[in-house]
Specification:
By secondary structure, the protein is α+β, with helices and mostly antiparallel strands. The protein is built from five helices and seven strands. Strand 6 and strand 7 form a beta hairpin.
């Protein structure tokens, strides 16, 4: 009986610490940064190419547009990712967009919400890509869990950005093809002039 009492006290203390952390940490911010040896417009194009998303966002499956125009402010999409063999859906809303420079969005799901922004800054042909995330749990349990796993969320973003760096620097696709100029033959008109 004595051990049961100590076990109960220990459980209460752990519960207080767990939920107390959630009350004291209503949101968790973190930042990540990489530098790539490519100009900002190419880095942006590679990042925005939907066929590349599974290559740098771990678990990414697909995106379905719900409303608005894709890749514009106000667009709402369902984003599906797989985590531990389970498919999860989150709703993404683009809140700001300046191509080659900045994009901000919110992600909403049952468990938590996230404000996310990504910035591109070019200097001497290299581009620094930085992301800022703020995660808020929905409910006291979720707030507490988010507070305890914030380190692993930052590690996941580091991993995603490292993968993005790799595909940007290995990119061989020409996202900016030169328009073909049609040259009309002038030889025939010269020949006609000579015959006259």
């Amino acid at each position: 009986m004595k051990y049961l009492k100590y076990l109960l006290i220990l459980f209460i203390i752990l519960a207080l610490v767990f939920f107390g952390r959630g009350l004291l940490t209503p949101s968790v911010p973190y930042e990540n940064e990489i530098t790539v040896n490519k100009p900002a417009n190419e880095a942006w194009a590679v990042m925005s190419d939907e066929s590349n998303l599974p290559k740098w966002i771990e678990g990414y499956k697909r995106t379905e547009l719900v409303s608005g125009t894709a890749n514009t402010v106000g667009a709402v999409s369902k984003v599906y990712v797989e985590d531990n063999d389970e498919e999860m859906m989150m709703e993404e809303t683009i809140t700001a967009l300046k191509p080659n420079e900045h994009m901000a969005m919110t992600f909403t799901m049952d468990f938590m919400d996230m404000d996310y922004e990504i910035n591109f800054k070019e200097n001497d042909g290299k581009t620094t890509i930085s992301s800022k995330s703020t995660v808020k749990g929905n409910g006291i349990f979720a707030k507490s869990l988010v507070a305890f796993i914030s380190g692993s969320m930052k590690e996941q973003e580091d991993k995603n950005l490292s993968s993005l760096k790799k595909i940007i620097e290995e990119n061989t696709k020409n996202y900016f093809p030169e328009p073909e100029i049609e040259i009309e033959p002038v030889v025939d008109s010269i020949a006609v002039s000579v015959e006259e």
